[in-house]
Amino acid sequence: PVTDGSRELHSLCAQLEFLLQFDLKEKRSFFGQRKDYWDFLCQGLARCRQEHEGIHFVTSLDKLKTPVGRGRAFLRYCLVHRQLAESLQLCLLDPESLCEWYYARSPFLSPKRRAEILGSLYELDCITFHLAL
């Protein structure tokens, strides 16, 4: 199993975060806080499901104060529960939402790149992650 001490885990999470932040449009909340991929994931999953267990878990953690921290916790939760590919795929279903959140260079706006990314993420489902949540 992959644990918190794994160098590969840190590299994987950094790459996932890079993908999710690459060419992300700058958006601000009502109070001026910069929105991040966490907000994109929340909005995408809210459209597709009643409530995602990972979103509920992360929002229940009082220690997490920033969107980036919440996004990182969500990625870890999804890896542990083998839900990363499915969760991201649900967020990528709506082309209008993708255009609202990402500029044209984002790999998520390319059907071919999107399929490659999701295919790789689905391969992670066969790996066991033992991470501190």
From TrEMBL:
<dbReference type="GO" id="GO:0051050">
    <property type="term" value="P:positive regulation of transport"/>
</dbReference>
<keyword id="KW-0862">Zinc</keyword>
<keyword id="KW-0072">Autophagy</keyword>
<feature type="domain" description="RUN">
    <location>
        <begin position="3"/>
        <end position="133"/>
    </location>
</feature>
<dbReference type="GO" id="GO:0072383">
    <property type="term" value="P:plus-end-directed vesicle transport along microtubule"/>
</dbReference>
<dbReference type="GO" id="GO:0005770">
    <property type="term" value="C:late endosome"/>
</dbReference>
<dbReference type="GO" id="GO:0005764">
    <property type="term" value="C:lysosome"/>
</dbReference>
<dbReference type="Pfam" id="PF02759">
    <property type="entry name" value="RUN"/>
</dbReference>
<keyword id="KW-0458">Lysosome</keyword>
<dbReference type="GO" id="GO:0005776">
    <property type="term" value="C:autophagosome"/>
</dbReference>
<dbReference type="GO" id="GO:0006914">
    <property type="term" value="P:autophagy"/>
</dbReference>
<dbReference type="GO" id="GO:1901098">
    <property type="term" value="P:positive regulation of autophagosome maturation"/>
</dbReference>
<dbReference type="InterPro" id="IPR037213">
    <property type="entry name" value="Run_dom_sf"/>
</dbReference>
<dbReference type="GO" id="GO:0008270">
    <property type="term" value="F:zinc ion binding"/>
</dbReference>
<keyword id="KW-0175">Coiled coil</keyword>
<dbReference type="InterPro" id="IPR004012">
    <property type="entry name" value="Run_dom"/>
</dbReference>
<keyword id="KW-0968">Cytoplasmic vesicle</keyword>
<keyword id="KW-0479">Metal-binding</keyword>
<keyword id="KW-0863">Zinc-finger</keyword>
<comment type="function">
    <text>ARL8 effector that promotes the coupling of endolysosomes to dynein-dynactin for retrograde transport along microtubules. Acts by binding both GTP-bound ARL8 and dynein-dynactin. In nonneuronal cells, promotes concentration of endolysosomes in the juxtanuclear area. In hippocampal neurons, drives retrograde transport of endolysosomes from the axon to the soma. Positive regulator of macroautophagy in dendritic cells. Increases autophagic flux, probably by stimulating both autophagosome formation and facilitating tethering with lysosomes.</text>
</comment>
<dbReference type="GO" id="GO:0007033">
    <property type="term" value="P:vacuole organization"/>
</dbReference>
<dbReference type="GO" id="GO:0071353">
    <property type="term" value="P:cellular response to interleukin-4"/>
</dbReference>
<protein>
    <recommendedName>
        <fullName>RUN and FYVE domain-containing protein 4</fullName>
    </recommendedName>
</protein>
